[in-house]
Amino acid sequence: MNTRHKWLAAMTVMLAALLFVLYEFVTAAAQNVKLVREMENGAGHPSDKRVILISQEQNTPYWQMLEQGVAEAADELGIGVEYWAPYRTNPEEQINLLAKAIAAKPDAVLIQGIKGDPYDRLIDQAEEAGIAVVTVDSDAPESKRLAYVGTDNLAAGRLLGELVAGGEETHGSIGVIISSPEADNQQLRLKGFRSVVESADGYTIAAIGQSKLSRIEAARQTVEMLTAHPEISTMVGLSGLDAPGIAEGVKVAGRTDVRVFGFDDLEATREAIAAGSVAATVVQQPKMIGQEAIRLLNRYFAGESVSDISYTPFTVLNGSNLNGTEDGSGQGEAP
Fold first, then answer.
1. What is this structure's pTM?
2. Do residues 281 and 273 lie in contact, with contact meaning Cβ atoms separated by under 8 Å?
3. CA 112 to each of CA 54, 55, 60, 262: distance values in angstroms, whole numbers, following the listed order
4. Are residues 165 and 139 part of one domain?
5. Looking at residue 171, what is its pLDDT?
6. CA angle at residue 316 from 229 to 13, to 5 degrees?
């Protein structure tokens, strides 16, 4: 790819980013108005039980699917749910929202686990106040949370490592993109992935970057990484928007010899798999996670004992089974 083509590709990515951010801003503004009204008016629903779900970020496909699962199960069981989230991934804002949720005195809170004593102390405070806390997507195992519902992230990371190390390439340098170091799920996936590839002959991890749950940032990090480490032959992303972002970054960098692997089942990821720019993705089931979290709380509200860990299935999506799954939610638990 010559310099002019690279410049045009980069400008296309920047224009797409600008339009995407504008859309997100308008959508988020409407959601913020709704959140303020909910916080001012209280529950505002007929249910005897009130649950607050604090998502990691607004308008993220993974969390939208998880919220859909929560909504469907809550409607079925007659549980009222409020949805709160920062506009962009921001651990400090998630902590502030958790503190506000405790002050609002719901019956339970669904949250993403975040590493750190301040977050654990707030979870403990909630439990001591009689507010059940269930972590989803990412755990906070050192806290007094009632339960964790979600992917076995260590095992999912190992599976991603097996996909990389078990492919046609038998060696190579790897670039890794994670969403955030504060998220327990990202650290566990990285740990599982590292345990496989570093024990395989000829594989090394050259660099690790952060996308902050941004497809555009994943693309930018990829370009920088491939420039600094031209020996990289494999790129992997450990959160949902990483793989399509990495694929765009690989294209902008003018590389055609880089394999890309990712997490989750987004339309952009499916399109990239179909186009051959992403090799495979590990698919979680966020909708099921939301459903199971509400069902667990319903059993808890009824006085039943509940498991402190409930893992949901995950599987692999690639070119061979791209058209074989209806919604990409997976067909069973990976080994």
1. 0.81
2. yes
3. 7, 7, 14, 20
4. no
5. 77
6. 45
